[in-house]
Amino acid sequence: MKPLLRLKGASRTYGARQALAPITLNLRPGECVALVGANGSGKSTLLRLASGRERPTKGTVEFDGAPIREEDPTTRARVAVVGDTVACYPDLTARAHLVLVALAQGVGDEATAWADRALADRGLTGHADSYPSALSSGQLQSLLLATAFVRPRELLILDEPEQRLDPGARVRLADQICAEKRDGVAVLVATHHTDLALRTADRVVVLDEGRVLAAGAPATVLAEFSL
């Protein structure tokens, strides 16, 4: 099966600072790659390149054989991204927010059903009619994740999705990522939570100061670096 996402010698510099050294990485449908490393190691930079939010200084980043650009309608229709900030409409309830996202992504008449399923998957059914201001930080994170799961997707990019989640919500997240893989979705996730990487990833990439220190089977790599 050919890669859905392909980084070929992709690097990123900001002025004189190299945030990400050249990296080559392939991600196939139904596969999950986890990026691990300390803050500032280059994980978020790599995710921004992979999602088309930024362009590499050198090298290429391709989605389904073409350069990926966030503004491209194909990217918007096929790639779901969860970043490190919570953005919700303050005047919409959790359900209304998800229905709007689903409609914007072309779900159509099934938008409400998709929204209710996403709420249930994230443990938010009891908060469906709550406004963002009434939600805890963990519930807001769950709502942010639900916006990715309430739309069609072939590539799912997650930046530290476990942050602010309680243990039960983290277990549900791991189960959901595994379900995404079974449905043929390619998943690229940056995480500080080794249990999440062990439960979901087919490969782990360890980054340090923008460089790849190791890549391979999760149990082997994580044990080697005591992560």
What does this structure look like?
There is one protein chain. The protein is of the alpha/beta class. The chain is built from eight helices and ten strands. The chain has helices at 43-50, 73-78, 94-104, 111-121, 137-149, 167-182, 194-200, 218-224, and strands at residues 5-14, 17-27, 32-36, 58-63, 66-67, 79-82, 155-159, 186-190, 203-208, 211-216. The strands form two sheets. Strands 6-7-8-3-9-10 form a six-stranded mixed β-sheet, with helices on both faces. Strands 2-1-4-5 form a four-stranded antiparallel β-sheet, with helices on one face. A hairpin with a 2-residue loop joins strand 9 and strand 10. Helix 3 packs across helix 4 (111-121) and helix 4 packs across helix 5. The model has no long low-confidence stretch (mean pLDDT 94).
Briefly summarize what is shown.
The protein is built from eight helices and ten strands. The chain is α/β, with parallel strands linked by helices.
Strand order of the largest sheet: 6-7-8-3-9-10
State the distance separating the first and last CA atoms. Answer: 31 Å
Broad shape: globular
Order of helices and strands: EEEHEEHEHHHEHEHEEH
Number of strands: 10
What helical percentage do the residues reach?
Answer: 25-40%
- Major sheet: size, sense and barrel closure? 6 strands, mixed
Quickly give the structural class. alpha/beta
Tally of contiguous helical segments: 8
Strand percentage lies at 25-35%
- What's the gyration radius in Å? 17 Å
Low-confidence stretches: none
* Average pLDDT: 94
